[in-house]
Specification:
- It is a single chain.
- Helix content is 33%, strand content 18%.
- It contains eleven helices and twelve strands.
- Helix 4 packs parallel to helix 11 and helix 8 crosses helix 10.
- The protein has two domains: 80 residues, no CATH class; 283 residues, no CATH class.
- It has an eight-stranded mixed beta sheet, sandwiched between helices. Strands 1-2 form a two-stranded antiparallel ribbon. It has a two-stranded antiparallel ribbon with strand order 5-6.
- It is of the alpha/beta class and 380 residues long.
């Protein structure tokens, strides 16, 4: 009898808790340990929005906010008291300066790779070298392994000085000899970006609440990459950069916190030249032409409802260099690609780093003069 009563109570609570939550919780509720506000309901329903809908419903469970706030206090106390830690991706580590956020160790010891001596072998390096082997089969002499430095490599001085030794260690340096032995030319953009840092931190080269560089950081990586490859023949276009605050980063989705930060970290690039740009989605076969000011973000052309649209070809009417450039990258290639499209006549961009057959097919069909394999540092 008691068991049945407990079962009945649990079933009733399963309905009552969401109902009470819907009444008491609104979209402005702040989940501080997750560094974001409660999700709003999506307004358009397709495959891309179902995850948001599930999160929106889950956010409105009664007492969820109180439980999460309590757990945040426990977690913050633990991280403050102990330096031997394994922080998750989405948490601001106590003691970081100027309100900056850094990636934790949720993925491949991302934090420890810049604060401790990590002796584990890279899980990603062999895969990267395999892809580069295939790419060198397409263009043996002009294939380059380009590094998008971690934010922790460029701004270690803003990390918590009591959690490890920020800036003292860099895991990538232990891999460079192995990469060189495989005959791969590695272009590391860390020092080039560091030289351009705003040391007042009013503006930045990286997003303060995200794991990515902004357009300013990507631009200097682009310039350093092609100066290394082309030497004096490379003449970059001039851009004017303006800044605003980046609000919804992958490390902090709390609008209130983002609005109050000091650093303006969302960079906008401008050039007064306007030119026609042709874009084609190579997978779905759709294309378009548009007039665009140089420096503006290049759209990722994508067919409605398409699962894959990550192979993008572009041809620029106004260009500095007639070379054909293929860029195979992770998400760090998004901003890097913009400047390549401005500078070179033809660019093939593959937002892809797992499907070797797809990379080989589209890159070999393109017959590039230069191949750039760009990876964020923590995934090398």
């Amino acid at each position: 009898m008691l068991t049945k009563a407990i079962q009945a109570l649990l079933i009733i609570l399963a309905f009552i808790m969401p109902i009470i939550g819907h009444i008491t919780v609104n979209s402005s509720t702040v989940f501080k340990n997750e560094n974001r506000t409660a999700f709003k309901y999506p307004t358009v329903f397709n495959n891309a929005y179902w995850d948001d809908l599930q999160k929106a419903l889950n956010d409105r469970l009664f007492l969820r906010h109180d439980v999460q706030a309590l757990m945040a206090q426990v977690l913050e106390h633990t991280l403050t008291e102990h330096s031997d830690f394994d922080p998750s991706i989405g948490f601001k580590l106590p003691g970081t300066l100027r309100g900056w956020y850094f990636m934790g160790d949720g993925f491949d010891y991302a934090y420890k790779k810049h604060t401790a001596q990590v002796n584990e072998e890279s899980k990603n390096l062999e895969k990267n070298l395999l892809i580069l082997k295939y790419l060198k089969g397409i263009n043996k002499d002009h294939t380059y392994f380009v590094v998008g430095p971690d934010k922790a490599s460029v701004y270690p001085e803003l990390m918590n000085p009591y959690l490890g030794y920020p800036g003292k260690y860099r895991y990538l340096d232990t891999l460079k000899d192995k990469i060189a032995k495989d005959g791969i030319t590695l272009i590391d953009n860390r020092d080039a970006i560091i030289k351009t840092k705003d040391l007042s931190y009013k503006t930045s080269s990286y997003l303060t609440n995200d794991t990515h560089w902004n357009k300013y950081g990507a631009y200097h990586a682009f310039v350093n990459t092609f100066k290394t490859i082309l030497g004096e023949d490379f003449k970059p276009l001039p851009y004017t950069f303006t800044y605003s605050r980046f609000l919804y980063g992958d490390l902090n989705r709390n609008l209130e916190i983002s609005m109050s930060k000091d650093t303006h970290d969302f960079a906008h690039s401008h050039n007064e030249i306007k030119a026609k740009l042709y874009i084609k989605d190579m997978i779905n076969g759709i294309d378009k032409e548009e007039d665009r000011f140089l420096g503006e973000s290049v759209p990722q052309l994508c067919k409605d409802g398409a699962d894959k649209c990550n192979v993008q070809y572009s041809k620029n009417e106004y260009y500095q260099n007639p070379l054909k450039v293929a860029i195979i990258s992770d998400s760090f290639g998004t901003y890097f690609r913009n400047f390549a499209v401005d500078h070179f006549k033809e660019v093939l961009w593959l937002w892809e780093y797992d499907d070797v057959q797809k990379i080989y097919k589209y890159t070999s069909d393109f017959k590039p003069d230069l191949i750039i394999y760009l990876r964020v540092e923590r995934n090398i």
